Amino acid sequence: MTAIDVSGMIDAVGARLRALRMRHDFTLTELSERTGISVSTLSRLEAGERRASLDLLLPIATVFDVGLDALVGVETSRDPRVHGTPITRHGRTWVALSRHGDGPTAFKVTVPAAPAKHRVEQRVHAGFDWFFVLSGRVRLALGDDEHIIEAGEAVEFDTLIPHGTASAGSGPAEILHLMSRDGERVHLRDV
């Protein structure tokens, strides 16, 4: 077993923080407003002039919706399996199939049956959505158009177009859904 270089890990937090902030297109002022940490403290932390502490890292990790391990560079597990916990929102069950990171997140989504005449609720948000129908049939409302997507078919669309889905059959449908962090916030949280 190798010794952990804690000092080196703490020293590298600044570079990780700056990279994470830049990927999310935040200014120091915006991050300060969201965390309650002063701009000068954040700047010194990124520059390596201030040591990272738990009271600084926790609000930052919360804003970026990442674990502390992402900020300090600790590998939490060598087990490649993803153990997603089902989340039910608006009648749909979402199970994460990938670990949360900066890129797209994969989910298996169970879309419940809906009456055939049921109007599909549509939303708009930044990003792109992609899904593959694993089983069943899915009604995709995309602006003024509606499409029936069959098992084995995939779709991709700009999420600035009003969009929504419902099961097109008498039973639920299952889809493999890839989305960005923006899409995840819209779909899994009441924003």
TrEMBL record:
Pfam families: Cupin_2 (PF07883), HTH_3 (PF01381). Keywords: DNA-binding. InterPro entries: Cro/C1-type_HTH (IPR001387), Cupin_2 (IPR013096), Lambda_DNA-bd_dom_sf (IPR010982), RmlC-like_jellyroll (IPR014710), RmlC_Cupin_sf (IPR011051), TransReg_Diox_bact_type (IPR050807). Residues 17-71 form the HTH cro/C1-type domain. PANTHER family: HTH-TYPE TRANSCRIPTIONAL REGULATOR, METHYLPHOSPHONATE SYNTHASE. This is XRE family transcriptional regulator. It comes from Microbacterium horticulturae.
